[in-house]
Specification:
Elements lengths: L8 E4 L7 H7 L5 E4 L2 H5 L4 H9 L5 E3 L8 H13 L4 E6 L1 H15 L20 E5 L11 E6 L4 E6 L7 E4 L9 H20 L5 H14 L3 H6 L4 H19 L5 H13 L3 H16 L4 H11 L8 H18 L5 H4 L3 H17 L12 H12 L9
Parallel strand pairs: 1-8, 2-3, 2-4, 4-5, 5-8
Antiparallel strand pairs: 6-7
Helix pairs in contact: 4-5, 6-7, 6-9, 6-11, 7-9, 10-11, 10-15, 11-13, 11-16, 12-13, 15-16
Bound molecules: nicotinamide-adenine-dinucleotide (NAD).
């Protein structure tokens, strides 16, 4: 049996954010608390959301103190603001970080004293208010997922919080909001979404729906990621990445992510590496580790991403996948953890704890090849200075 989740309605297309007031009206909502980050305010991007709200004479308040890779105290601050007003929804505008913050706020606002009380495997199925999500990165797919990721600052753990309470009621997927994403973030978020699609496709919990979304995502992201990185205003590439990221979100939330995400979260929490970048650091090595356990699926992924020709057999396509992912990292200037500046001694000192946290998240159990703890430690060691990422970094 499969249980599928998705927002009740999603508006997709360039300029769609202009429809925000109509969308709220259709949902019977009129008093949003906007959850965003300081960059959205300072760059003026938030005006794309505010102008149609003002034109419709809708009242709103703004909580713009969210931070990249959100932490528990930000969620608590947001809940205090939520409780102090009379809102009927949360309107999340930004990358995955503001969207995840809004999701965690509405889950915690319903009950509990700290967001860690809702850590998976506990089901966070209920929420105080609905979330409407408007992503401004082509990355996390959080606008369509039943997950939110919040760091517990007491333990430096990136907690996974999962349940129906985290699924946005509605989403607006407007690629025009991503023109201003800088190249580094374009690369990191793009590899994040490619990882979502690939991991969903090889997941032990893959199903026909997640397969369709994952294949669509890989076909859209594969040929367009380098273009958007080099040409930020290329509309066709931006649109493909945005829809690809959305489909990848629908894929993984209905199939689960696997070992890359399981090992990536601890890197982010301990060393403050952006989520997509830590995925990218791991992706070639972990794909290589897992390849033989699901070769036909990895090979199909390689062909649809465009790393291997359609007629390549599985062995050739599988080899092209690991080589292609390593080349993508080089072209997008993805550093190794060493090149990123993480001291070797600090990396070694955290390895055991990171491996335990990776396993405890549950994600590695969905991987085609389920690793022992020692294998996770060995993989962390291999990626540190580029063990599986040949060539300059
Ligand atoms: P982000 O939201 O942290 O944003 C990264 C940076 O890009 C920020 O400085 C932000 O201000 C800036 N930015 C965003 N949009 C921009 C724009 N249009 N123009 C200019 N700058 C812009 O990055 P993200 O990768 O979208 O989100 C990462 C977070 O999402 C992590 O915490 C990760 O764990 C989480 N995540 C959640 C899910 C989920 O299903 N809930 C899935 C994957 C990742």
């Amino acid at each position: 049996m499969h249980t599928l989740v998705a927002p009740r309605t999603t508006l997709i297309g360039g300029g769609a954010v202009a429809q925000i007031a109509d969308l709220l009206a259709r949902l019977g909502l009129s008093r949003p608390l906007i959850v965003t980050d300081p960059v959205m305010v300072s760059t003026g991007l938030l005006e794309r959301l505010l102008a149609p709200l003002r034109a419709a004479e809708l009242g709103y308040s703004i909580f713009s103190d969210t931070i990249p890779e959100p932490e528990d105290h930000i969620v608590a601050a947001g809940v205090a603001i939520l409780r102090a007003g009379t809102y009927d929804c949360l309107l999340a505008f930004g990358g995955g970080s503001p969207i995840d913050t809004a999701k965690a706020m509405t889950i915690l606002a319903l009950g509990g004293s700290h967001i860690r009380e809702w850590k998976a495997p506990r089901a966070a199925d209920h929420a105080a208010l609905p979330v409407i999500a408007v992503p401004t990165t082509a990355g996390t797919g959080s606008e369509a997922t039943r997950a939110t990721v919040i760091t517990d600052t007491a333990t430096q753990e990136k907690m996974l919080i999962m349940g129906l309470g985290a699924v946005p009621l509605a989403a607006i997927v407007d690629f025009e909001l991503t023109y201003s994403v800088p190249p580094r973030t374009t690369a990191d978020t793009g590899i994040d979404s490619l990882t979502h699609a690939l991991e969903a496709y090889v997941s032990r919990r893959a199903n026909p729906y997640s397969d369709a979304m994952a294949l669509s995502a890989m076909a859209l992201i594969g040929p367009n990621l380098r273009t958007a990185y080099r040409e930020p205003r290329n509309a066709q590439a931006r649109e493909a990445l945005m829809i690809g990221a959305h489909h990848a979100g629908l894929a993984f939330t209905n199939a689960s992510v696997a070992l890359v995400h399981g090992m990536s979260r601890p890197i982010g929490a301990h060393f403050h590496v952006a989520h997509g970048l830590s995925n990218a650091m791991l992706l070639p090595a972990i794909t290589s580790f897992s390849l033989e356990s699901a070769l036909p699926r990895y090979a199909a992924a390689s062909r649809i991403i465009g790393f291997a020709p359609a007629q390549a057999d599985d062995d050739a396509a599988g080899a092209a996948l690991t080589a292609g992912l390593a080349a993508l990292n080089r072209d997008l200037n993805v550093p190794t953890p060493a090149a990123y500046g993480i001291p070797h001694a600090a990396w070694e000192a955290r390895l055991q704890q990171m491996a335990d946290q990776a396993t405890a998240s549950g994600s590695p159990a969905n991987n085609p090849r389920i690793p022992e703890k020692a294998e996770i430690v060995a993989l962390y060691r291999a990626v540190y200075d580029g063990g599986n990422q040949p060539g300059p970094t």
